[in-house]
Amino acid sequence: MKHILLPLLCAASIGAQAQTTALDFTSNDCAGAPHTLFTELEAGDVVILELVMMGCQPCVTAAQSLTANVLPNVSEPSRVKLYSIGFTNSINCTQMNSWKSTNGFTHTVFAGMSAQTTHYGGMGMPTIAVVGGNGHAVYYTALGHSNSDNPAIIAAIEEALAGGVGIEENTTTAVAIHPNPVEEVLNFDRAAWTQARVLDVQGREVMNVKLITGKLDMTALQPGVYVLQLSNGAGASGTARFEKR
User: In angstroms, how far is the first alpha carbon of the chain from the final one?
Assistant: First the structure.
């Protein structure tokens, strides 16, 4: 299980607390629809929780990036939800709906939940968690967000999807790769992998090829950090993060 904690990014942040289990909540969203988080996770959904402040531009930018660069690049987007939640109980639905409308968002928003902020380590402009599975596991937490975090978020979502209801036959594994950093050819154990995708730091697909060997030519990639996603026809998947020099 991936569990990632990043440094504090603002004076409002408090010390991050490592959590391996999500914190349940039962609440109507700001459109009036009822939600129980654990019920949704047990049904097979994966949820990205974004805890936001009002007047916080990085919170807006993060939601834009998650919407544009993460959600379209996961293997089962219909099972992945983005919930933006006010970071403190004093934030009400009038404020959250205004925040949503002003920024042109269409995803689900909730009034403030201070307990959620505390559970995931404090306010980090924004605080982000990826949760999923029957065990209500936390696959990723971070205080703050940048586009370079998106590959790790996507990898965490894929791991959570593989651990969800009804896909017990699917497995996501960490793939051993070499060399890393890579300049020309990336090597890995091909095993039964039949397809390879490479995503950049913004979650955009930059490579999608059918595999014949356990080698990929990376000479055309620009220097940077990428995520390799491998899959086969049996539903198994593998991931690895690498740097291209």
Answer: 28
Range of the domain at 234: 172-244
Answer with the one of 134, 162, 190 that is the final residue of a domain. Answer: 162
In degrees, to the nearest 5, what angle opens at C-alpha 65 toward C-alphas 60 and 69?
165
| Torsion sign over Cα 73, 119, 20, 22 | negative
Q: Is the pLDDT of residue 188 over 60?
A: yes
Domain ends where: 162, 184, 212? 162
The two tokens of residue 230 are: 């491998």
**What's the token pair of residue 170?**
């699917």
Which range among 13-17, 32-36, 175-179 shows the weakest confidence by mean pLDDT? 13-17
pLDDT above 80: residue 37: yes
| Structure-token pair, residue 83 | 């919930």
